[in-house]
Amino acid sequence: MKYRLEFETIIECRQEELFDFHANTKNLPLITPKDIKVEIIKLDEPLQEGNEVVLKIKKALFGFVWELVFAKVQKPSLIVDKAIKSPFKSFVHEHHFIAINDKETMLKDIVTFELPFAPLSNPVAWFIKHDMQQMFIHRHKATLEYFQAEVMKKSLHP
Asked: What does CATH list as the number for 2-156?
């Protein structure tokens, strides 16, 4: 069974700025919850379709290696990464950057995933979805706070 989660936040920045922030995988630790450790093992740069990234992720007692490929990159509006190797049977993350005007952009994340070993894993699906929701809520809040701080810096130092 496939699960789909969506998250939306309006951020005060230009579409290109938000795209560039998320295109830089080195910013991932800035928006990751503190209880999750992310180590970048491999990163193909610059970001383009077909590039791969390998992450070592640790949460509590669990550690995983994630291998991702950037399946679609359409600057400045879309990045789609797809797991090649992860704890999931399938995992696709779409980052949409939707310009509202020249000063505001909607960040929209769509995550679609399948758990391994279904239907045996179905009883834990609620916990996985809840954990993922909390993580993306944190990511959106951290991204919003990052750009709010940038706006403050610009207003103090024009």
From this structure: 3.30.530.20
C-alpha angle 92-135-151 in degrees, rounded to nearest 5: 100
Residue 26 Cα distances to 29, 65, 122, angstroms: 7, 17, 33
pLDDT of residue 2: 92
pLDDT, position 7? 97
Take residue 142 and report the two structure tokens written for it: 């951290």
* Cis check: omega of the bond before 46, within 30 degrees of 0: yes
- Is the sign of the CA dihedral 95, 96, 102, 104 positive or negative? negative
User: Which neighbouring-strand residues pair with 67?
Assistant: 54, 85
Q: How far apart are CA 11 and CA 146, in angstroms?
A: 10
Domain residue limits, the chain:
2-156
Low-confidence ranges of the chain (pLDDT < 50): none
